[in-house]
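Friendly challenge for the regulars: who can give me the structure tokens for this chain first? No prize, just bragging rights.
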Amino acid sequence: MLKLKLFPIGKKNQIKYRIVVVEARSKREGKYIESLGFYDPQTDPATIKLDKEKYNEWMNKGAQPTRTVRLIAEKA
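First reply, four minutes later:
Bragging rights claimed.
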């Protein structure tokens, strides 16, 4: 099963995230299939860049987003 998850990048206390497609059982920072966007909670307001076409394409293929990714996608 494929999942849409947040992939942490950046320094300690300056964390940013990539929104990626991964196998559901993979490690949090393991190999990912495709990067769909970017999320930076440190800015005010939070920076969200998400490729909606790719996001919807993966959703149609059966990938399940995590709760956080779903909320971020609704805001984007």
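The first strand starts at residue 2 and ends at 11. The first helix runs from residue 52 to 60. Your move, everyone else.
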